[in-house]
Amino acid sequence: MVPAQAIYAAVPISVLIAIGFIRKWRSRKWGKCLTDTCLRGKTYLITGANSGIGLETAKALVRRKARVIFACRDIAKAKQAINEIRKEQPTGGEMIPMQLDLSSFESIESFVDVIKTGFHKIDVLINNAGVAVPLRCDEKTKEGFEIHLGVNHLGHFYLTNLLLDQLKRAAPSRIVVVSSTLHERAKIDFNDLNLRGEIERAKKGQVKARHNLGYSNSKLMNVYFARALADKLRDTGVDVYTCCPGFCYTNLFRLSVRWYHYLIMLPVALMYMKSAKQVNN
């Protein structure tokens, strides 16, 4: 007769194995990049390239010999990421760390000045960086904009427009704006773009931290910006794309998600959540 302890142990193990097989089956249907065309001579600029999706994107491009500019707020983390990639890919493409703080227009302008001095053209601009901060923290950019509006939208808006000449010189070139389907939860109030009312409610505990209207609004602004920019750049040779990476594990929402959220979401995450690396495969 099978001991009860063995049965108790076998049931959860069997469930985990079944979930693993389901995940493996589902992953076969996920989109994959099938090309390995050499990108030598192409320059890619990625904001927030030191972690998450930006880092995995950089790895994939370096593997194909592209020159990649790591535009990061923390230059030390950018250099650390580059060192780790170089250990994995000693013969990969060139990697250049550069400091860029999207919460500061002055930093953006200084960054662009260096880019224009050192690079005649940019083949691809990937607007990947982003923040997700609980509204109760009431964080602002250097110019006083609500942090999600300022970094996720205005920072990339300003950066992109300042780099249009470099992108046009590389035509055919492209701009990729990383958005999110959370834009569907957006409720933009043009009389309160800085969300003062929502932030005050959040401070009083009337808004759940994981329901971040600031983040959702910024992602809808990303989509609007990409569509308007695509119209503006039609017939210039610069294509504009916006994308959602899907249900993906990164550290973006580390300030909003509590430990018990992970437990509640674990079964769904095991079957549906991609890693940052799988997003870029």
From TrEMBL:
Domain of life, source organism: Eukaryota
InterPro entries cross-referenced by the UniProt entry: NAD(P)-bd_dom_sf (IPR036291), SDR_fam (IPR002347)
GO MF term list: oxidoreductase activity
Any single Pfam family the record assigns to this protein: adh_short
Membrane-spanning segments: 6-22
Keywords: Membrane, Oxidoreductase, Transmembrane, Transmembrane helix
Gene3D superfamilies: NAD(P)-binding Rossmann-like Domain (3.40.50.720)
UniProt family annotation: Belongs to the short-chain dehydrogenases/reductases (SDR) family.
Name of the protein in its database record: Retinol dehydrogenase 12
Organism listed in the record: Papilio xuthus
